[in-house]
Amino acid sequence: MRYHVLTLFPDMIMQALGTSIIGKALEKESISLEAIDIREYTKNKHKKVDDTPYGGGAGMVMQAQPVYDAYKALEEKIGHRPRVIYLTPQGSVFHQKMAQEFAAEEDLVFLCGHYEGIDERVLEEIVTDYVSIGDYVLTGGELPAMVLIDAISRLVPGVLNNEESAQFESFHDNLLEYPQYSRPEEWMGKKVPSVLLSGHHANIDAWRREQSLIRTYERRPDLLEKAALTPKDQKFLDNLRNSTCK
Ligand code: 6GU
């Protein structure tokens, strides 16, 4: 996976993604990352990249020319038309399935806007996907781009140590993860659930499944409609609903 981020704040991208698991993945070359400074492509002698909106209104609009030229130089370099993701609150809300789809690409381009947005005409020319990270407004697309890069990268082979860990976890089945415990067996008077110390793997799996169901029911009941539930799960949930609704 090769990431290319078109931004006015390249340092923000490189600094934040240079650490932790993503930083390690960059060192191992499981992924690569470049932040392209849109300002370097402006033809304006004062290096200006924005101007006031036609029709009036607040704020500034990023102009088409520097964005287009930065993109075109990149397209020429990689030799094909990549997927270009524009981060905007007006996009489709990002979810795990999208992360899986994007993880299959060779190259991904993230276009980060600022101010009141980017001139519509260049978006029409280059953007393939409009993506939001939720229903709230941020000051720019850099943090959302990094959120996507993090979520996508952990699905790229070689990024996580344990190939299993990207598979069995929250959302793989539209169920939330069960709770985890480690040493000591007792902390602040609270004991680790005894089944986890029993060594009985079938019982442990059954207990974890129930905990996932309880958690999803309590915290994200909307997910249960999409979850693949066995008759046993259904029965457990029916009992749960009866015991909490009465
Ligand atoms: Cl992708 N961009 C901005 N500016 N704000 C957002 C967003 C994106 N997603 C949620 N809020």
Report on the structure:
With 246 residues, this protein is an alpha/beta fold. Helices cover 39% and strands 17% of the residues. The protein is built from nine helices and nine strands. The chain has helices spanning 10-17, 20-28, 64-78, 96-103, 120-126, 142-153, 201-219, 221-224, 231-245, and strands spanning 2-7, 32-37, 50-51, 61-62, 83-93, 107-112, 129-132, 186-187, 190-191. A five-stranded parallel sheet has the order 2-1-6-5-7, sandwiched between helices. The chain has a two-stranded antiparallel sheet with strand order 3-4. Strands 8-9 form a two-stranded antiparallel sheet. Helix 1 packs parallel to helix 6 (142-153) and helix 7 packs across helix 9. The longest helix has 19 residues, at 201-219. The structure holds 6-chloroguanine. Residues 87-89, 132-134, 136-138, 140-141, 144 line the site of 6-chloroguanine (6GU). The site of 6-chloroguanine has 12 residues, from strand 5.
Topology:
Layout: E1 2-7, H1 10-17, H2 20-28, E2 32-37, E3 50-51, E4 61-62, H3 64-78, E5 83-93, H4 96-103, E6 107-112, H5 120-126, E7 129-132, H6 142-153, E8 186-187, E9 190-191, H7 201-219, H8 221-224, H9 231-245
Helix pairs in contact: 1-6, 3-5, 4-6, 7-9
The chain binds 6-chloroguanine.
Shape assignment:
elongated
- Sheet-strand content, in percent, reads 15-25%
Helix content: 25-40%
The major beta sheet can be summarized as: 5 strands, parallel
Termini, distance in Å?
52 Å
Radius of gyration from the alpha-carbon trace, in angstroms: 23 Å
- Which structural class do you get from the secondary structure elements? alpha/beta
Enumerate the spans where pLDDT stays under 50 for 5 or more consecutive residues.
none
Instruction: Work out the number of β strands.
Output: 9
Number of helical stretches of at least 4 residues: 9
- Placed side by side, the strands forming the largest sheet appear as 2-1-6-5-7
Query: Mean pLDDT, nearest integer?
Result: 95
User: What is the H-and-E element order?
Assistant: EHHEEEHEHEHEHEEHHH
Ligands (ions, cofactors included) = 6-chloroguanine
